[in-house]
Design a protein that fits this description.
81% helix, disordered C terminus, Growth Hormone, Chain: A, mainly alpha, 465 residues
Length: 465
């Protein structure tokens, strides 16, 4: 405990708290449709694939938007971006406050704006870490990212309100939370990171990515990207291509690095698993185990709490042992749990035990992953947070979509769990193959990550690429 307190005092803890609140309320709005999906699905009579697509759209939107949002952070003060993100993620709740009745297509568009809440990841983490030395980045970024505890509030709050007031009015509960966060950001947040690049061009890229998400989602709903499920599976690739097309060329060079793709694969499992399962687990519990909607929301809250609370612990452990060693164990655990679920399709008690284990590994793995990023990509943490976070969001999109397709096609979730077991195994093998090379830079040092030294380092890295 004294070590943790000393670590927090080595930087601006008030800014860290503001960043935590920003990501927390952003996450709350981001996965809001997850616990409400059983209510929405019943009212609109949605098939399993359509219900899965609905809860997956905010996840996908965040994965695409956070790339350009992270790029915008390189040129614009993080406080301004946080306030912009809060305002945009409030729009869906404001829509329902006006009493406007949504159809399925409208809900998909509103889901894209909810994705801006998830894109807060690309701002909150680098802004929090900008005033702390690298030796405590695992702990600091883990604490900031523990804002994914917002999913816990979703499970407790929204199903109960929906049961008594209707699901549309239930969404209004997000507005006071967002207002409180805006006040905290204004009062406490501080961004010490170096800024480079064109703010106007970066803002244009962000606006374009938002428009591309909305357009692609509506195109899939209209069947313009292929009949049946083909459009759903193509959507993340097209959306990612649209976002990358408007990024500055010098930043795209990181996609030519082997380590970037390995880290993206890992995060698509750990964070993708957390947010994807948080979005879908209420539907899983109500359809697989016939649990009522309110109790499914409470179980979602308990599972999300497990994953959120251990994320800083994952960062702290990784600060001591390195994220490389920690991830090897956790990815193997995730693969084993997915294969066990697919093979056994256990009764409720066994299913909850496996889900709890998955959430534990997801949370620890998220903290361990981002212990590595500031050491491997110094001076480009904001950019890499956006790119790696995008991969996590894409993984989070595919999880509910694949689960919905499996359920609709076979009547069972077996193939869905088996698919993610295979992907987790591939991620584990990738880290094992790179273990020796990564350990050369993975263990923390003591040099600061901000200031003129970072500007020089960033310029050197860009020139070297």
């Amino acid at each position: 405990m004294p070590h943790v307190v000393a670590s927090l005092r080595s930087g601006n803890w008030k800014s860290l708290l503001a960043c935590f609140l920003y990501f927390d309320t952003g996450f709350t709005t981001w996965v809001m449709l997850g616990p409400l999906a059983p209510f929405i699905g019943k009212q609109l009579a949605l098939a399993p694939t359509k219900a899965a697509f609905l809860v997956a759209v905010p996840v996908l939107a965040a994965s695409i938007i956070r790339v350009t949002f992270g790029n915008l952070f390189q040129a614009v003060d993080g406080r301004r971006l946080a306030l912009l993100g809060i305002a945009l993620s409030a729009l869906p709740s404001l829509w329902f406050a006006l009493g406007l009745a949504p159809g399925y297509a409208t809900l998909l568009v509103l889901g894209a704006f909810l994705g801006v809440g998830g894109a807060s990841f690309a701002i909150a983490l680098p802004m929090a870490g900008s005033s702390y030395p690298p030796r405590v980045q695992g702990l600091v970024l883990g604490l900031a990212a523990a804002g994914n505890i917002g999913a816990v509030l979703d499970g407790f709050l929204f199903p109960t309100l929906a049961q008594h007031l209707g699901w549309q009015r239930a969404t209004l509960a997000a507005l006071p939370l967002l207002a409180l966060t805006a006040a905290a950001v204004l009062a406490w947040a501080e961004d010490r990171s170096a800024k480079t690049g064109s703010a106007g061009r970066a803002l244009g890229a962000f606006v374009f990515s938002m428009a591309a998400v909305v357009g692609l989602v509506l195109a899939v709903d209209a069947g313009l990207l292929g009949s049946g499920k083909a459009g759903l599976l193509m959507l993340p690739l097209l959306g990612a291509a649209a976002a990358l097309a408007v990024l500055p060329q010098r930043y795209l060079t990181v996609l030519g690095e082997r380590d970037t793709w390995a880290m993206m694969l890992v995060y698509s499992i750990t964070f993708g698993g957390f947010v994807g399962m948080s979005s879908y687990v209420s539907l899983l519990l109500t359809t697989q185990y016939a649990i009522d909607k309110v109790h499914a929301g409470l179980l979602m809250a308990a599972l999300s709490f497990t994953g959120a609370m251990v994320r800083p612990i994952g960062g702290l452990i990784a600060d001591r042992l390195s994220g490389v060693r920690v991830l090897l164990v956790l990815l193997a655990g995730i693969a084993a749990a997915n294969f066990a679920f697919a093979a056994l399709m256990p009764p409720l008690a066994g299913g909850l035990a496996l889900l709890a284990w998955l959430y534990l590994c997801f949370g620890l793995g998220n903290g361990a992953t981002f212990q590595l990023v500031p050491h491997r990509w110094r001076g480009r943490t904001g950019l890499m947070t956006g790119i790696i976070g995008a991969a996590g969001g894409i993984g989070g999109f595919y999880l509910p979509v694949v689960m919905g397709i499996a359920r609709e096609s076979t009547g069972s979730y077996q193939w869905g769990f088996a698919t993610f077991g295979i992907i987790a195994s591939l991620a584990c093998l990738s880290v094992a193959a790179l273990q020796r090379q990564w350990l050369a830079w993975a263990l923390p040092g003591d040099a600061p990550i901000s200031g003129d030294a970072v500007i020089d380092l960033n310029s050197a890295l860009v020139a070297a690429e």
